[in-house]
Design a protein that fits this description.
Strand order of the largest sheet of chain A: 2-3-1-4-5
CATH architecture of chain A: 3-Layer(aba) Sandwich
CATH topology of chain A: Rossmann fold
Number of strands of chain A: 5
Number of domains of chain A: 1
CATH superfamily of chain A: P-loop containing nucleotide triphosphate hydrolases
Oligomer: homodimer
Largest sheet of chain A: 5 strands, parallel
Structural class of chain A: alpha/beta
């Protein structure tokens, strides 16, 4: 029987006893292989990969993407960050601004946040009645199915599971560390007050998705990066992209 | 019980006995009112109208749109013609290129052809297996539902029902009339050979759509324009767009 996910049952930390050094070599080898496979995906130009990062502020969305795709080449990968919607975006359906940024064949696209914000922050703050979010969940599943069958896009969805305590430490560090002050945003402290509601909405996102989520423990950066790298590595390995060979007669 | 549409049962000509002069005044008044209501829709800026024109070559897609929206102002209306997909468009799912052109709130958008081509010409020529088109029908219905509930877009779909005989006359006229030669396209004669298959595919489009189609007799231009004008007029009348009034205190 299908058992709904409870986020509070899922770990935020690395397994006890495991150390960074235990996984570092494997992580590096996988990141290396991801770079190789990205070149093949680009050369093949038949399929694409969309990688969605969701999580509370300071969960490490950009940091994880940077580590996982460390050895990819820029001509076949790009990232798009979903900010507060513009007036033009709000004058369209909620998937409008996301659709234009979906990857073309041969490409990897990273979404830092995504259309899931429209069933998260907007739901936490009750900007629409509950029925509207039900329709959005249905629309999201149809949209992801469309990308899958018609554009041959593989979709990986990460929820970076940081604990409330660890987020507090990281937000406070942004206040005092000169290198991190540029990341500070007073709004993050406001959203933090709604932690419980956010977790309930994330649970619903995870439980209502047809394409499954990967819930990644995010309190320890090294373990978070290791887990995300492994998911992407396994996915690309299974996709097994192939460099095309000449089908025309050779001149030799 | 639901009865599937058979296109061959539906008229291509104006009803016998009816003359252009009988409907001309009403058509003109409705076109005028459409212009008025477009200004209100724009001022209201809460909803939008998407009008899709499909039909065989020379059925009169641009001509009908020109007549129906004769008195609209350009800042609130625009048309997009779907041509042969570009390589970049083909590197995405089939709805990608359509989504970006959907209307923002307050606007009327005209689609001359549309994403329905991807279940028409592509199906006639068997570019994908049949199952793929089934998935596309599902995706189209989900897409139109998304526009409806999340962007408050009303969608009007016209199939301009021209007869094979009348199309032949119009295509031949393009060969000899210097004013119409620019419209001539050798490919139209090729597609005409698949008339029966096109009609079968159009029937499927009409019968599988959740949002209904308006099948317009298109052999007589004046009657075609009258019918399409009436559908748009009735739709805008029912939408009843309102010019906003000042809610702030007046200074007088």
């Amino acid at each position: 029987m299908y058992k709904p996910v409870k986020i509070s049952d899922l770990p935020c930390e690395a397994p006890q006893g495991l150390k960074k050094n235990d996984v570092e070599k494997e992580r590096e080898e996988m990141a290396d292989a991801i770079g190789e496979m990205q070149r093949l995906l680009y050369a093949e130009a038949k399929r694409s990969l969309l990688v969605i990062f969701q999580g509370m502020d300071a969960a490490g969305k950009d940091g994880t993407a940077g580590a996982v795709f460390r050895w990819c080449v820029p001509h076949g990968i790009s990232a798009y960050s979903f900010k507060k919607p513009t007036p033009l975006e709000l004058a369209h359906d909620f998937l409008w601004r996301a659709h234009v940024h979906t990857p073309e064949k041969g490409y990897i696209k990273i979404f830092n946040r995504s259309y899931y914000e429209d069933v998260l922050i907007q739901r936490v703050h009750r900007w629409f009645p509950e029925e509207h979010f039900e329709l959005r969940f249905k629309a999201i599943n149809a949209f992801e199915e469309l990308l899958s069958f018609d554009a041959h896009t593989t979709i990986i969805k990460f929820f970076l599971n940081i604990s409330e305590k660890r987020q507090g430490e990281k937000l406070r560090e942004r206040l005092v560390n000169p290198k991190k002050q540029w990341k500070h945003n007073a709004g993050d402290w406001e959203e933090r007050k709604h932690w419980g509601t956010y977790m309930a909405c994330y649970e619903d996102v995870i439980n209502k998705s047809v394409i499954p989520w990967h819930v990644i423990p995010a309190d320890d950066e090294w373990y978070r990066n290791y887990c995300a790298t492994k998911v992407v590595y396994d996915t690309l390995k299974a996709m097994d992209p192939q460099r095309p060979v000449l089908s025309a007669p050779r001149h030799d």
